[in-house]
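Lab notebook page, bench 4
Experiment: in silico fold of construct C2
Operator: M.H.
Input chain length: 171 residues
Purpose: comparison with the prior construct
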Amino acid sequence: MKRVILSIILFTVCLSFVSAQKYALVDMEYIMKNIPAYETANEQLNMVSKKWQKEVEALLQEVQTMYKNYQTELVFLSEDMKVQREEEIVAKEKEANELKRKYFGQDGELFKKRESLIKPIQDEIYTAIQEIAKDKGYDMVLDKTTTISLIYSVPKLDISDIVLEKLGYSK
């Protein structure tokens, strides 16, 4: 919520300065959806993510099964056996959580894979936007798909198709 309010305030402040400035808009979602390499990278990420999710779910299912078996056999187990089974269940659950963190955590494998596949495409787009901004004399280029609430814009301000042309993906 704070981020949205801060974005709105920042946008309002920026608008007060743009009266003498030239600015343009881009639609990053539109641009990326029109780049085949991005779509391919996204598909690869989805496939890997589903594969890893199945691994984590299989471990969690194993934990569930172990716990159900433990509940069923509870009356027949000695205290030592109860403690041992509980420790096994906790260890397996910890293993599942570690695997989940390894794959999907903040610096996990999915993040690293996304960084290696998508970041080069984004860098290419940002470079093209910077070049267009310099060539056309834009002081500011805003992404209309971000959290900034853009209620209306004149279509001629949108340079997304120009960015795609510069990248070699014209319609």
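Observations: DSSP finds six helices and two strands in the chain. The CA atoms of residues 29 and 56 lie 30 Å apart.
Next step: discuss at group meeting.
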